[in-house]
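cron nightly-structures :: item 1 of 1
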Amino acid sequence: MRSGLALAFAVVGLVACGGGDGDGEGYPQESIDAFVQECRAQPNTSEGQCRCVVERLQESMPYEEFERADIALKENREPAEASIEKLRTAVTACATS
């Protein structure tokens, strides 16, 4: 679904600018910071919303899964539908933050 893909593009900076591979305790801090910066560059987003999304993603999407989604997007392929749904859920939940 293209709208899901648009949501994924809005959060793709998490891996693109981040470093490390995670340690089982969430995403690397450098990746979180890069995500927030990239997310804030999107129209009509607040820092609170961006932090909310990355927190939700850490709860629902292992870092390795997000890396796979990022690679798919960079290769102009749609990520797995399950990944798109997790992204959509996180963004929707945080839309009013």
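cron nightly-structures :: done
Residues 23 and 42 are 28 Å apart (CA to CA).
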